[in-house]
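Dear U.,

For the methods section draft, I wanted the exact inputs and outputs in one place so we can describe them consistently. I've listed the two proteins in the order they'll appear in the manuscript figures. Please don't edit the token lines directly; just add comments below if something needs changing.

First protein:
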Amino acid sequence: MLANKTIVLGITGSIAAYKAADIASKLTQAGARVEVIMTEAATKFIAPLTLRSLTGQPVVTDMFEPAAEWSIEHIALAEAANVVVIAPATANVIAKLAAGISDDMLCCTVLATKAPVIVAPAMNVNMFENTITQENLAKLKARGFIIIDPAYGRLASGKMGLGRLAEVEEIIGTIKQVLGRSGDLAGKRIVVTAGGTQERIDPVRHIGNRSSGKMGYAVAEAARDRGAEVKLITAPTSLPEPAGIEVIHIETAVQMKEAVAKATPQADALIMAAAVADYQPKSVAKAKIKKETPSLTLELVRTPDILTEVKGNFLKVGFAAESEDVVANARQKLEKKQLDLIVANDITDSSSGFGTDTNKVTLISQDGNVESLPLLTKREVADRMLDKVVELLGKKP
């Protein structure tokens, strides 16, 4: 997604300027060409040499300095950019962009570019909440700028409030989403489930499983990066919410079924990567169960079979975590649930499955095609699976 893309990174005079080094580093590591433009105020917070060392590209700081590579620099950078990102963006630069003022290289480049522009504000809470700043941000939004709202937390002034630069992963996720607008899933609505459901026993205990949610989150992010409008229905996990995705939090299998039923009427595909508990306690204790006896007997009943019970004219993709006869059991599940595609993995392999960052899976489609993939990262598995989803969507009436 980022490889060989030209990203113009604008850095302005905020204490959060040091975080721009992490953004530049991660984008460069992902294969992007990062061209940095710093305002004069930004150079007071972080040295241009730092950004040059991280990106391997000259850093523009002076509007009138002769360029080593770019002839008419603001025009050349503006035309070369696939996306322009200003992080952090101060109230001053936001005001200048809203008014069309172009008295520095960054503002000139933004005015001259036809690429999408992402703005990530970072400033004192009072400055951010000031009516003028809010009006300026509204103007930029109305003109098509993408605004990444700041986070709540401790600010340089010592106050708590909105104004912290958004997390680096959120900024990079937004860049990927913007770059993926013309991907092979553009215009498609994809619903993804993730994590392991938790079936309550009492107010403090539950029946659960070892699912980390990593596979489902990887699928959601991969679909977003290919242009899809994604809804992620997730059981509790320790993972951060991915940028540019509508996240719906649930706990139980019943809640997940209700959320899936609500999300799928307009969906093109449902990808059930969640590990849904097969059983739930027949009754839930209202108070914490005390350790008064040496044993405890729970009566369990079946949870809803979401893939079987939720109906609609959308592609159905399931996952099968198996410990034996992996392909045979997965194929049986494919037929029983009338799926278009199933992703089967052997959970006895320590490098694959629950809690790991890698997976070794077999893709089995309704037409009988079986494709065994080598050990890959979960993101790579997600993309290989989505390649198949794109193919099946092209065939679906």
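Second protein (the one for the lower panel):
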Amino acid sequence: MLFDLKISSNKTDFYKKNNSLLIKFFVEENNLENEYSEFLEKQSLTSNTGLLKSFLTKDKKEISFTNVVSKPDLFILKKVFVDNKFDIDIFRDFLSKTIIDLKDNEIENIEIQIPSFLIFKDIFCNEAYYYQTFVEGILLGNYNFDKYKTDKKKLKKLAINFSSDNDAILKATIIVAENLLKAVYLARDLSNEPAITLTPAELVKVTKTFLSKVGVSVTSFNKAELKKRKMNAILAVAEGSANPPFLLKMHYKPKGKVSKIIALVGKGVTYDSGGYSIKPTDGMIEMNGDMSGAATVIGTIYAAALNKLPIEIIGIVPAVENMISGGAYKPGDIIATASGKTIEVKNTDAEGRLVLADALEFASKQKPDEIIDFATLTGAIVVALGEFTSGLFTKNDKIAEALNISGNKTFERVWRMPFWDDFKKQLDSDTADISNLGSRWGGAITAAKFLEQFVDEKIPYAHIDLAGPALKHKFRSYTEKFNTGYGVRLMFDYLKNK
């Protein structure tokens, strides 16, 4: 982390302490000049200072300045425009960037004055979530993966106080957001961990350590158990690695009656060399993050347990490495899966769909009300949608609509892709029931159609290809430097509204 944070919501002049910062938002649709004058008067600031006056000009969106007269020591003033260009992520991203920018500053106390929810009631779904975006911004910006840095300094303490119109809602929201971001941090740590340390066995160990503490049942199937269950697709992908495979099952069952049972399945390829269809070096560098789908599932279940969501969740993660050796599987191999279907391997770098085939068949046997899987599955989806949007594949309109709403709300956005059966023909094989690769056209769609073949057709199903947003990208301040933990906030919101 960048700071040792303590977040509060108290009606005090928090910013009058030493080494303090006050962050104030001015909403452009209000009478800005009057609001600004009142602010200057309250803070005993002079309105004739050129810097302060410049804030009233049309082009000036933000200023920060040091106060040499009294407290606080530092001010950051930010204009917010409520118009058709308004970005629902504005507060989250701004506060994330602010925390990142303060990492070398001596500030010890920050007061953040949240504008009235009434101004934004037509934009945000409710007051609690409006406040949550502020808290999330601070916590997302505070994330740092410096585990392997040798020159680390002791974390500086930073106290942050939010003030708002509704202290009771804000206090409750801080608790929910802090629990949620603990889960996002876990997902991010897992996906940023190098493959040399996060082997399949270590992924199982870490998952058991975290989830068992919050009442989640965690079991794992080793190689011998996978053979008994005829999970030959998982075994084939793992065969080239010295690190044995596992299938991880997590079961979160809250107290009391539950309305639904949701199965979440995540691709847990802890490293992907491409196998004999080997990747170029540049394509391998980020492949420790090829288990980001698994991180999403683990993080989502952790968030649900911490916040005691009243919904039953079954998590399934096939954990493997896709490596090369004399025993590794090869293009041209035919694999008999646990479902009984056979697969012709046309490309060993299309391994994620192979391990998910056995995992989805196993998830179907749990008889959930719906199945959603998450995978860094294809580069094709990044070509289609860019780095910051995941592809959503489903025939179920209700699931699609709910995920779209949660995606827009959390800014972990999804885009529904074609999922027509016409694409299935591209997976025809002369030697097996199905091939693991279609043509170069619509690669993300044919990958999704492949997965669908291993799901019980009676169970509503969705596949989320998060190959773009799960890995670091320069879209938001909180996604730039490290793999993102994408999908945990999305799914927590989705499940909370079931």
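Candidate sentences for the figure legend, describing the second protein: The chain has two domains: 3-166, 185-496. The mean pLDDT is 96.

Thanks,
Y.
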